[in-house]
Amino acid sequence: RKVKERHAAELDSSMSAHPKLTKVAQDHNSSRLKLKDDPDSYTLRVAEARRIRDEKLDNAKREKEARELKDCSFTPVLTKCPSYVKRWARASASKRRREAERSQLSEYEVKPQWR
Predict the structure, then answer these.
(1) Please, are residues 42 and 34 in contact by the beta-carbon 8 Å criterion?
(2) How far is CA 5 from CA 16, 20, 67, 79, in A?
(3) CB within 8 Å of 31: residues ≥ 6 apart
(4) Which helix or strand (DSSP H or E) is residue 90 part of?
(5) What is the pTM of this model?
(6) Whole-angstrom Cα distance, residue 85 to residue 93?
(7) CA nearest to 46, candidates 34, 58, 36
(8) Does pLDDT of 60 surpass 90?
(9) How far is the CA of 71 from the CAs of 3, 57, 62, 65, in angstroms?
(10) What's the rounded Cα separation, in Å, for the pair 89 and 96?
C-alpha cells in the first residue's frame, strides 16, 4: 500500500497542471441518469419520454393526413343495396347462426351423421 501511495504522490508531483473544479462544476458532477440513486425512476422516465414521443408522432401523422385529405376532391357515391341481396344476407346469417348453435349441442343431442 505504501508503494502505491508513494507512486501516486510521485505522479501528482510530476504533473504540471492540477485542474480545480468550480462550485458549479462540482454541483453538476452527479450522473444525469441517476441510476445509483434511484434506478426505478430511470425506467419510468424512459417510458414517459417514449410515450410523449409516440404522442407527438401520432399527432404529426394525423395532421399530415388531414392536410392531404383537405385537398382531396373525391367523394364516393353510395347506392342502396338491392332487396334480394339483403334477403340473401339475412338467410346466410341465420344459417350460420343455426349451425353454430347445433355445433354447441352435446354429442348425445345431435343425431349421428353416419345414419
Answers:
(1) yes
(2) 19, 21, 70, 93
(3) 37
(4) helix 83-104
(5) 0.39
(6) 12
(7) 34
(8) yes
(9) 80, 22, 15, 10
(10) 11
